[in-house]
């Protein structure tokens, strides 16, 4: 039981890798979408679940990653993955470094609001200026490729390549975060979440730790942003809006805070729940049109019945058996 | 900008600030003082606006009576809401409230769409407030806006008094920090919080009713005010009512003059203000000394 | 042999601020289909629906539901320009036929134009331009514009400025505020201070209601005439009440168009849905007409894409708004009416510009 | 006045109280002693209704009230000074006192705001300070004062002298004696066994969730051997 | 005379108009327990807060082994050897007792960049944590979640966490509060053992304990030092008796 539990992420990853061979193109897209959201959610989980820093501006880094991808792609030839991925992560990381340095002076709800403020500023910069293409957003003319020495290894125009790239990103993100949480760094972050005062008294430079976590989370969000830009070939200011930040926060709360699996489960269930509730073929025309109502009620039921999020449910079952 | 225009702009700023304060007052109570992260505040505001829309034909000139009735209805609604959806969340991680209130927004929006449809509506101010006063040679100023400003101040003062000067207010604040201890002193916290929550909903709805004749009534109207309300409450220092007032006025000024001088980037203004203030004073402007 | 039904996918806002518009568009579309006995080009129609939530960042995923999951033959949508742009991209990539029944973003039939992307509404530039023509004709010399700082607003204002300045006037200042901010007082004061001859405004929905009421309450309606693109007063007059009386706007549709075609349409719509049609319903209706014209040419065989699209582009649509054709960029070349608010109606007093075509700048078709 | 019979309480899965019987006649003081972690606080919290006992009964003035909500118990006249003080950090000293002010069950108002301040002059100097800003001892005084403001019939003091200066501790014992004289009962948990025995009528010693020794305080004070074995003094 | 590890001169802290600590100069030496006693609100905790870097001083100077550390941030000070315990229990409630201690031990072996190493497998911190728990008498409870400890046990954990950081200066704020007689004895024995090699500042209201263990006692009243000296001198100091001790001692 525990052994299975331990290897579950790996098994899931292998299953996911095999899926494109059996799935229809639409379902493959759906899974792709979930994986990208999962990367985004995982990046926030490092902040919220692990470090206890609730950010309502995480979409800014996601959006910046996406915009950087589009902006740095050449007009008329495909951009190179080897440049674009680091660039997107770096762009998001740089902004995160600045925002983190300023906002970590504050705590709790104030922190929530300062991160929101910085995200909104980024939002308005892309929304209201020519630079970001205004409200309409901008297109990525050609999807990125992985080219080395004139040879093209991966072309994201191919749906499966895109899928596997996203899967690779998810696996790497998950693994990186799992390592972090297992390492002393992660333990220190957890300590900061529970009792920062004590951590300082013990000798941890907590601000530095939090800042580092903030930057890492920002960079991973940038990675998710890159994936979206490459997948959709289109970026829009709304990617940076607080709705987006809020949505990803909801995903990890729904999944259950404090567990990497929670973030992934949250992403899966959120997308599937909404998808199911708004698909006429599944729930009938009448209900599908009222998906907001059913989704709202479903989430309320989740909150009422599952104090620890969906992961709590899985764990309780695990403990019982 | 000549002096007269400047004066009028200042008046605009103050008036907008007061309106923001009115809308944020309910949030100060529920979020600032009770400590519930309530995303559905905008929905309560919308509820008020739609109440005004559906009640005003019934009440005609008895505008104040309508306000009272609407507020009571909203309070009752809030009372039930707390019982059904919030009473068991206090012991849990605060973020669960985020999820719950977000889900409530969805449900509210859909119910509104089912009950009153998706059209835009206007609400007429009562006859006795419908006039305007002249302002300079070209402009006039609606009397109703002055009425709304006065109402804001009145409500703000009443709220401040209740929270800071009455035992009820002290109990509410005490409950936010240590529920168990409050119970140990013989105060039925469950009922108390239910009532206060109802009060917060009522305030939001009252703000919606007062704002309806000025702002019109339309789907999604709650979402637009929500963030600004949070900004106001937080800049002011969570839980501080005078702080919220000052913050609301500041936001009013920044917004008004931002639009005039930096139209291109005026959206940033309010958030820049918040970021600067919080980086400068990490606990808001008027955080209580303790 | 019995052909399988033609799959039509609606991607429209069914929730949120634009829900009423989405509803009207769908009703309009279905009305025409019903008039044809439930068939277009001899083929039965099967509908699919996706709520676009007016959320551009979800647009690609949402439109893929129609393209990949439901594998529709035609997509009809949407209202929000940002969403429509994302849809245009997806449609282009998958070569799915797209009919835009509202979103006015100039780019859709400009830089992003494609043989399979059609529009039955307008480009943002058009109503702005038409209003500019009216304003110039009225002899106004000094204008100010006011709108939300977003694409639809700035594009409309651009159209207005182009026509107004061509007609000899001068736009002295463009005012704007962030979307969806509705606190206009500061900008109204700015207008009062500058005292232009005329103000051109672009707002829609709740913002339009509030703007018109605030404009009136500030006492400006009597001193500085207000004009706007038709959306300023469409579907909002009941809410705007007295404040909107006498407002002059321009749009490709109006309430008092006394043609048999329009009357028939309005009656039919009123009978079917127990509601009065608006411009959105017309646009939806025409989307169906346009599709019908194309399908008729290929006898219902939607797989003959090139022929279908060519036929659609050549079609003359007998719209309730009056006949229109499509520009090479597939945007309607249509008449724009002068409209004045009287009571709860936008009454037309003639045509501002006949057969106004969008310049289609940047389109490489 | 207070009668506890066969109380069994679980926290999580652990069986903490294993059949506790305690009774406290009106107007007397009962000392509750025991090493750390023996269940003293749990007993008090079971009586107050913060935790629901699995078995056993709690009687207050003859009426059964097992598992009633803490606010009900407080309203019936129990004043509670918890361990760790439970001061409201976001209220000023004045507000901490005023918010809890209440006439007793019999309408008595023996303890007023003024009298509390008289008893703890240190608090009078700190009226406008927030609860958070008080020193540890000041918080303790405030916690006691706050409970007195509810004019209780029974005061439960869980480690009420923790962190208090010797002079103040002496003052607290004096106040307790005073309270007792005015007919209010007290239930005292304190680490200083000698002091407890000196200021109570009856005393019980707990070990691992059971009462292992009970009797008049004076008598227990003699029994040095048992005290040493059970309490380490 | 033994080495002075930590000392302060003219240390002052004001809260608005109130001088909670006023011009206090003290030193703490290796091999000595220096008790700081005083009335409630005398400023003892505030003093410790300043010495440990939790709170900036309004005026004055703090030296660690002769180096000025007045402006040194708390974490750095802690790593330099200044450890403290809190009067109000300050633990990680949701972690196990062992994890509480190990996390504190980890501060000295931070190496946050070593992501490939598992924190729980780190032998050094594990040993230190075990020793600290053993010393504080909590070895049996190591695997329990800290929040399920009784009040007294939490106080013990508080001390263990301070020890786990391996400090050279121990600033203990009422370590005995909430502990029973037996635990008090154990704690005093522990302090006795720690004395060589450590400088210990002990803030405490338990006079029996203070007089048993302290080499030097400083008495504070209203932010000021009113007396410093050997236990016997303090016991008989009239001023101290009036302000603090009463006549019992
Ligand atoms: N939530 C819990 N789950 C399991 N056991 C618990 C829980 N809370 C407390 N305990 C255990 O219950 C026992 C009794 O605790 P209690 O707080 O009543 O002791 P106490 O006698 O008041 O001790 P102290 O003198 O230290 O305050 C202790 O051994 C404690 O570890
Ligand atoms: N943050 C603060 N703001 C204002 N006043 C404070 C603050 N912290 C402490 N004080 C005041 O400073 C004085 C000294 O407090 P301190 O906690 O140092 O006392 P103490 O000597 O530790 O007392 P005790 O023995 O009761 O713990 C007290 O009167 C307290 O009210
Ligand atoms: Mg206890
Ligand atoms: Mg202290």
Automatic annotation (TrEMBL), chain A:
It is found in: Cell membrane. The keyword RNA-binding does not apply. It comes from the Bacteria. The keyword Transmembrane helix applies. It is a multi-pass membrane protein. The chain crosses the membrane at residues 34-61, 81-102, 108-126, 162-180, 201-227, 247-273, 293-314. Pfam families: BPD_transp_2 (PF02653). Its main location: membrane. InterPro entries: ABC_transp_permease (IPR001851), LivM-like (IPR043428). Keywords: Cell membrane, Membrane, Transmembrane, Transmembrane helix. This is Branched-chain amino acid ABC transporter permease. It comes from Pseudaquabacterium inlustre.
Automatic annotation (TrEMBL), chain B:
It is a multi-pass membrane protein. It is found in: Cell membrane. The chain crosses the membrane at residues 16-37, 65-86, 98-115, 143-163, 192-212, 224-253, 260-280. Its main location: membrane. Coiled coil: none annotated. PANTHER family: ABC TRANSPORTER ATP-BINDING PROTEIN, BRANCHED-CHAIN AMINO ACID TRANSPORT SYSTEM PERMEASE PROTEIN LIVH. This is Branched-chain amino acid ABC transporter permease. It comes from Pseudaquabacterium inlustre. The lineage of its organism: Bacteria, Pseudomonadati, Pseudomonadota, Betaproteobacteria, Burkholderiales.
From TrEMBL, chain D:
GO terms for molecular function: ATP binding. It comes from the Bacteria. Keywords: Amino-acid transport, ATP-binding, Cell membrane, Membrane, Nucleotide-binding, Transport. It holds the Pfam family ABC_tran. Belongs to the ABC transporter superfamily. InterPro entries: AAA+_ATPase, ABC_transporter-like_ATP-bd, ABC_transporter-like_CS, BCAA_Transport_ATP-bd_LivF, P-loop_NTPase. PROSITE patterns: ABC_TRANSPORTER_1 (PS00211), ABC_TRANSPORTER_2 (PS50893). The keyword tRNA processing does not apply. This is ABC transporter ATP-binding protein. The keyword Membrane applies. Residues 2-233 form the ABC transporter domain.
From TrEMBL, chain E:
Residues 6-247 form the ABC transporter domain. Keywords: ATP-binding, Cell membrane, Membrane, Nucleotide-binding, Transport. Pfam families: ABC_tran, BCA_ABC_TP_C. One of its GO terms (molecular function) is ATP binding. It comes from the Bacteria. This is ABC transporter ATP-binding protein. Gene3D superfamilies: P-loop containing nucleotide triphosphate hydrolases. InterPro entries: AAA+_ATPase, ABC_AA/LPS_Transport, ABC_transporter-like_ATP-bd, BCA_ABC_TP_C, P-loop_NTPase. Coiled coil: none annotated.
